[in-house]
Design goal:
The protein is mainly α. It has helices at 3-10, 16-41, 43-50, 54-61, 63-82, 85-103, 109-123, 126-137, 140-175, 186-195, 197-205, 227-238, 242-249, 252-276, 279-302, 304-310, 314-343, 349-381, 385-395, 398-404, 410-425, 428-437, 444-474, 486-491, 497-516, 518-522, and strands at residues 476-478, 481-483.
């Protein structure tokens, strides 16, 4: 590592290069969410061409991506703690961009599901590496602001995805009414068009410098001598049936507990499949939650300090789950707002894509930046101050959602959608910074992976699906086809707010004590 980089890190302040790196990471996160969210504006076209239901589309927009994103985030988060974060991010960006492009060749639900799984695996590298890099390029006093700026890419990418997806799809279909080269239609061409540029950006990412891990906090950390050995071990610990072998090695009691949990989750998944008919959704949920349990058991044995500061800290768990309710509503809205406007309000795709895209980008960007700054200001006044911003993100969107998705007036719909996005986005920087502050520097990649377990296995996994499933249940048959009730499905999102409030009130009371006892509970020097 060169002398200049060491000097920058040791100065305990953000440098111009720090802000440059942050800018590159924002571009990557924009691409991340373009590739993730473009399926929303294409949903009705995909649904029609592949003969799918709203719950099927909710699965493709949620669990098909979320389960693999969450599970691979675990070993990749650990790899981000032990290996070059710059290299890992570059490789991950290449993978998810290629899989997005391959989505354009899907001819049925299975093929599109497999491509979405691949996108999830690749994107699992993004936030663990970015959060860890930002924490080593910015001091604690600026961390929520920096993380909020990074997180703005979520909303910029989500908004741009609507504009790009609609424009490419309509232009392609107008030029090739019966299908273009290779028989591709508009929604397939859109996947190809947004996936390929990411391969070029991956080269840009590879040029970034790797900072000294932990130096910004005055605790430089040595590199792991065998990072890939640990990665392969972590990977095997979450993939059934190898999880049973790992449990058996820990003893008969560990194996028995693992089998009981596997049986319980299998029974629950079977029951939900019988109840809803959504085989893919509940199979993915069962496998995902079982794998996370198995990994947590391994982490408890192999790295008890990290386990205690993440899974053994109620403040961390309640903050993560409380914010996960925010993300559940946000993901549900972001996926279904465009199909709702097209199907229920009968708005033209070109108009709604432009307005909703700009709406989402602006409201999310403003919300996450303002929310991050306010969260840092509240944190300066009280150790739990940032939790108040998360509570705001839970409660404030409820009224705009209710008004926006009951009004027949398009202008009111757009305004309320903007406010709901603005208020919900304000919580992200606060939640991310709180979880980072509750662990030691060497654990930040793993903590980020654990944080995103909540936002994906709770928020993304269930937000789009819940809306789609309720829409199908409340729908009616028209000419032999099920027409869902998206209004009822979206309004049901408000029901998660009380759960989040209870969790966050507990977190508010627990965070100060948890943060003050980090080194003591970890058994390490802070």
């Amino acid at each position: 590592m060169d002398d200049q980089l060491q000097a920058d890190s040791a100065s305990n302040q953000a440098t111009p290069y720090s802000w440059y790196v942050l800018g590159v990471l924002v571009v990557v996160y924009v691409l991340n969410f373009i590739d993730r969210q473009i399926i929303s504006i294409l949903a009705l076209d995909i649904k029609h061409d592949l003969g799918l239901t709203d719950s099927d589309m909710g699965f493709l927009g949620g669990a098909a991506f979320a389960v693999f994103y969450a599970l691979f985030g675990i070993p990749l988060g650990r790899l981000a703690d032990n290996w070059s974060r710059v290299r890992l991010l570059s490789l991950g960006l290449s993978l998810w961009s290629a899989m997005t492009a391959l989505s354009g060749f899907a001819q049925n639900q299975l093929q599109l599901t497999l491509a979405r799984m691949g996108v999830g695996i690749g994107e699992a590298t993004a936030s663990p590496t970015a959060y860890s890099l930002i924490s080593d390029y910015f001091p604690k006093r600026q961390r929520a602001t920096a993380l909020a700026i990074y997180s703005s890419g979520l909303y910029l990418g989500g908004g741009v995805s609507l504009l790009i997806g609609a424009k490419i799809g309509q232009t392609w279909n107008a030029a090739y009414p019966g299908g273009g080269p290779l028989g591709l239609v508009g929604w397939q061409a859109a996947f190809l068009a947004v996936g390929i540029p990411g391969l070029l950006v991956a080269l840009w990412v590879a040029s970034l410098r790797e900072p000294i891990r932990g130096a910004m906090d005055g605790t430089p950390t040595r590199a792991e001598p065998n990072p890939f050995g640990q990665f392969l071990f972590d990977l095997s610990s979450i993939v059934p049936p190898f999880t049973l072998i790992g449990a058996a090695r820990r003893g008969p009691a560990a194996l028995a507990i693992n089998l009981v949990v596997a049986a319980g989750l299998s029974a629950f998944a079977w029951w939900m499949i019988q109840l809803t008919g959504a085989l893919a959704q509940w199979l993915a949920v069962g496998v995902g939650y079982y794998a996370v349990f198995s990994w947590a058991c391994v982490l408890r044995q192999k790295d008890p300090a990290t386990f205690r500061l993440i899974w053994g800290t109620p403040a961390f768990i309640c903050t993560t789950l409380g914010y996960s309710m925010v993300s559940l509503a946000a993901y549900g809205l972001s996926f279904w707002s465009a199909p709702y406007a097209e199907q229920v309000l009968k708005l033209p795709k070109s108009e709604l894509a432009f307005i909703l895209g700009a709406n989402g980008a602006l409201s999310g960007f403003l919300g996450v930046i303002i929310g991050g700054r306010l969260a840092d200001a509240l944190r300066a006044r009280h150790p739990s101050g940032r939790i108040l911003m998360i509570l705001f993100g839970v409660i404030a969107p409820a009224l705009p959602i209710w008004i926006g998705y009951t009004t027949p007036d398009p202008t009111m719909f757009y305004v309320m959608n903007f406010l709901a996005g603005l208020f919900g986005a304000a919580a992200l920087g606060a939640a991310a910074a709180t979880t980072q502050d509750l662990v030691l520097p060497r654990m930040r990649g793993t903590a980020t992976a654990a944080f995103f377990l909540g936002t994906t296995l709770v928020g993304l996994c269930f937000g789009p699906y819940m809306v789609g499933q309720i829409s199908d249940l409340a729908g009616t048959m028209v000419d032999g086809r099920l027409v869902g009730d998206l209004r009822t499905g979206i309004l049901a999102l408000i029901g998660v707010a009380p759960i989040a409030v209870v969790l966050l009130i507990f977190a508010y009371r627990a965070v100060p004590g948890a943060e003050a006892t980090l080194a003591e509970r970890a058994g390490e020097s802070a």
